[in-house]
Structure formats: structure tokens, C-alpha cells
UniProtKB/TrEMBL annotation:
Binds 2 heme groups non-covalently. The keyword NAD does not apply. Residues 235-455 form the Cytochrome b/b6 C-terminal region profile domain. This is Cytochrome b. PANTHER family: CYTOCHROME B. One of its GO terms (biological process) is respiratory electron transport chain. Residues 12-224 form the Cytochrome b/b6 N-terminal region profile domain. The chain crosses the membrane at residues 41-65, 99-119, 125-147, 159-180, 192-215, 254-272, 316-333, 340-357, 363-379, 399-416, 422-441. Heme b b566 binds at residues 109, 211. Component of the ubiquinol-cytochrome c reductase complex (complex III or cytochrome b-c1 complex), which is a respiratory chain that generates an electrochemical potential coupled to ATP synthesis. A ubiquinone binds at residue 216. It is a multi-pass membrane protein. The lineage of its organism: Bacteria, Pseudomonadati, Pseudomonadota, Betaproteobacteria, Burkholderiales.
Length: 462
């Protein structure tokens, strides 16, 4: 019960409370955590991400009971799980489907944050923890992808690890250190297994806890971008535009969980391979270091960034260098920036242009791929819009977001296809659109006529 009175619990719960903050934690994060009353469909995906994390941990534990991280036995152990272990096929398909569904719900969760400005003050740290979780998920998926020791697992790992060799000076040695050998081998499998099963999950769970604690410290955002903590409150100090997370949103999220589990079960039982996007045909063949697949591509959730990697050719670096030079000239001629920065920024762009032409394009491909993720950390400081939510931004802003989403999907599709001149040109245009969306955000995000933001959240009973 909220208010100015403290009710002391008795019995077993009271005994626990005097030794561990059970009741106070329940109140702080559920029964007395007040969330905005106007949450919509987009707010299902945070809870669903937590659900999939639990599914992955539980199914992973059961898989590890029978899996052998040995180059001679790994593929056979997966086949044994699928064919001999009671319900092993179900556990394996739940885990493989869960990996893809994890990225589906996380991408949608991040998209909601982008729409409603959930990265803006005072939630910068919540967003940073979230992007760190996304990076951990990518690492976890990459390390886990090698474990079945199929053809695509083996050659996908070979290609991705070789990318690190493009880093000047330390690249070749770094690649050998990651693999533990000169090629992907038993040593690579063992260290990837250790990272996938122990190291990354520990970091991931810690980041999820930090993400939730940071969120509950500053409060949840909402589709209007209105801070309910700054709005009217009742005599107990509870926001009038908020409702207790439990039972309102715990019950609300059950509907989202039910819908998700229906889709999840349909995929697991009827289409676990999803036409080769969730499980590729080549991964049902044992790894063969002497036979390269005709087309090597990562799993679908990596393909947008893989497209950016492939798009960065030697010719493309000329385009980027030219853009950097034009940017430097524009800053010198028309910039309103004063002081040292007026000269420092153009000089920096000229240096970048020179580096683009003197360092191998393969390295810049790795930079583009990694930078496409790292730039998300800086989103709270790139967006200079006077309002948070897309609801109150100019209509053409919404078109920008739409183009960004379509472009990301196109890059994802191109990453699954064999390279060609037309696809490569499209990927290069898509890379420029993706990077331009963020790098030019300080300019375009403040332009246009913005709608007035209401003082209180807009809410319609349903």
C-alpha cells in the first residue's frame, strides 16, 4: 500500500524482509512503480525480450547437457540431440528460433525508443545500457553460431574473424588470438563455447539488470514524451497520469506474451528453418575445411551490417573522401561555428579524407560495419529536436524514419544475396542513407514546425 505509512510485514515474509529487501524491491519495481497510463502495442517488446532471454537460458542449459565442444564430435552431438535425446529436437528448435526472435523483439524495442525519443534526457543511461545489451546479443549470437559446426557456421566464422586482420598493425595477430589458431579449429570452437555459455551471458544478465534499474530510477517514457513525474500528483505524491505496473501492466503484458508464444510455437513446430533464414541449408552439413560454400552470408539479423561491410569498396572510399572534403569546404565557407572548432572540424575532415585513401578499403568496411552500431550510443546527443515523440514532429520527419526503416530492411535483404554490381551499388546508397540519418541528425532533427506537446498524457480507455 502506497502512502506515508510503513507497514511492517510479519511471519516468513517479515523474517526475509529483515534480512533481504523482498517487499521493498517488489514495491519499488512492480506494485508501486508508476508507469504512464497510455502505453500502447509498442511497449510489449521490452517484456518479450526478457521472456526470450529466459527461454534462451533454459533451453541452452538443456542443450549443454548433451553438446560436446569438440571439432570431431560437435556436429554429431547436435544430430544426437535432434534424433536421440527425448524432446531434444524441440529444445534445439526453441533455442535456434529463440535466437532469431530475440533480435526481432529487440529491433522492435529499439525502434519504439527511436519513435518516442526514449533515449532523450533523463534516459540517456537507459539507452546506453540498451545498446550495450544489443552489442552483447550480437556477440552471443556470433559465438553461438559456430557451435553446431556446420558448413555455414565454420565458413561464416572464418570470414568474420578474418575481418579483424584488416585492422592496421595489430590485425593479423588479433585474428590469430581470436581463433586460437591460424584457421578456425578445435581451439576456436572451445573458446567460442566458453564465451557463448559463460562469459557473455554473465555480462548480458548484468546489463539487463542495470537497464531495468536505470529505467525504474528515471521512470518510463510514453508515446507523448510527457514526464509524468513532473505532472500533477495526488496527496501521496503518486503521479495522476500513472498506474502501478502491477497489476495493470503485468496483466497487460500477458496478452503480448500469449500472442508472441502463438507465433513462436507456430515457427518451432511448422517452420523452424524459416526458408533458410533461421537455419540455413548448409548448416545441416558437417563443416568441411576443404569445401567452401558458393555463397557465405551471416544469419539474417547481421545482414544489414554485412551489407555495409561489402559496400565499402575502393571506389566507395573515393566517394566518402570526396564527401569529407566537400564537408570541410562547406564548414570553412558557411559554418556558424566560432573559435578553434571552426578550423579544427574542417582539418579533421581533411585528415579523414586522406586516411580513407591511404588505408585499405577492407578496414573501412569493418569501421562502417562497427560504426553503424557504435553510433547508436551517441543518439541522445545527436537528436536536437525540441520534442521527444514522433507524434509531435513535422510530417516529413516521419517520412525520414520510414525511409530509414525501409533502407535497413533492404540492406538486410541484400546481405543475404550473392554480390553483384547492382546489389553493390544499392548497398552503397543504403549505407550512405543509414550513416547520413545519424550524422545529419543534429541538423534535420531541429528543422520544421513542431506541434505543441500536451501538459499531460493523452489517454483513451480501451
Amino acid at each position: 500500500m502506497a502512502g506515508d505509512k510503513t507497514v511492517e510485514t510479519t511471519g516468513l515474509l517479515g523474517w526475509l524482509d529483515r534480512r533481504f529487501p523482498v517487499t521493498s524491491t517488489w514495491k519499488a519495481h512492480l506494485s508501486e512503480y508508476y508507469a504512464p497510463k497510455n502505453f500502447n502495442f509498442w511497449y510489449f517488446f521490452g517484456s518479450l525480450a526478457l521472456l526470450v532471454l529466459v527461454i534462451q537460458i533454459v533451453t541452452g542449459i538443456f542443450l549443454v547437457m548433451h553438446y560436446k565442444p569438440d571439432a570431431e564430435k560437435a556436429f554429431q552431438s547436435v544430430e544426437y540431440i535432434m534424433r536421440e535425446v527425448p524432446w531434444g529436437w524441440l529444445v534445439r528448435y526453441m533455442h535456434s528460433t529463440g535466437a532469431s526472435m530475440f533480435f526481432v523483439v529487440v529491433y522492435l524495442h529499439m525502434l519504439r525508443g527511436l519513435f518516442y525519443g526514449s533515449y532523450r534526457k533523463p534516459r540517456e543511461l537507459v539507452w546506453i545500457f540498451g545498446v550495450a545489451i544489443f552489442l552483447c546479443l550480437m556477440a552471443e549470437a556470433f559465438f553461438g553460431y559456430l557451435l553446431p559446426w556446420g558448413q555455414m557456421s565454420y565458413w561464416g566464422a572464418q570470414v568474420i574473424v578474418n575481418l579483424f586482420s584488416a585492422i592496421p598493425f595489430i590485425g593479423p595477430e588479433l585474428s590469430i588470438w581470436i581463433r586460437g589458431d591460424y584457421v578456425v579449429s578445435d581451439a576456436t570452437l572451445n573458446r567460442f563455447f566458453a564465451f557463448h555459455v559463460i562469459a557473455i551471458p554473465l555480462v548480458l544478465i548484468g546489463l539487463v539488470a542495470a537497464h531495468l534499474v536505470a529505467l525504474h530510477e528515471v521512470g518510463s517514457n510514453n508515446p507523448d514524451g510527457v514526464e509524468i513525474k513532473d505532472g500533477p500528483k495526488d496527496k501521496y505524491g503518486r503521479p495522476l497520469d500513472g498506474v502501478p505496473f502491477h497489476p495493470f501492466y503485468t496483466v497487460h503484458d500477458i496478452m503480448g506474451v500469449a500472442g508472441f508464444l502463438l507465433v513462436f510455437a507456430a515457427i518451432v513446430f511448422f517452420a523452424p528453418e524459416m526458408g533458410g533464414y533461421f537455419l540455413e541449408y548448409n548448416n545441416f552439413l558437417p563443416a568441411d575445411s576443404l569445401k567452401t560454400p558458393p555463397h557465405i552470408a551471416p544469419v539474417w539479423y547481421f545482414t544489414p551490417f554485412y551489407s555495409m561491410l561489402r559496400a565499402t569498396t575502393d571506389e566507395f572510399t573515393w566517394v566518402l573522401a570526396g564527401a569529407a572534403v566537400l564537408g570541410a569546404i562547406a564548414l570553412l565557407l558557411k559554418s556558424r561555428i566560432k573559435g578553434v572548432a571552426r578550423l579544427a572540424l574542417p582539418v579533421l575532415l581533411i585528415v579523414i579524407a586522406v586516411l580513407l585513401r591511404t588505408i585499405d578499403a577492407k578496414f573501412w568496411g569493418v569501421v562502417a560495419m562497427g560504426g553503424a552500431v557504435v553510433i547508436l550510443f551517441f543518439l541522445p546527443w545527436l537528436d536536437h529536436s525540441p520534442v521527444k515523440s514522433i507524434r509531435y514532429r513535422p510530417t516529413w520527419h516521419k517520412w525520414f524514419y520510414g525511409i530509414f526503416i525501409v533502407n535497413f530492411l533492404v540492406l538486410g535483404y541484400l546481405g543475404t544475396q550473392p554480390p553483384s554490381d547492382a546489389f553493390n551499388l544499392t548497398s552503397q546508397i543504403g549505407t550512405l542513407i543509414y550513416l547520413g540519418f545519424f550524422f545529419l541528425m543534429p541538423i534535420w532533427s531541429r528543422l520544421g514546425t513542431f506541434k505543441p506537446v500536451p501538459d499531460r498524457v493523452t489517454f483513451h480507455r480501451h
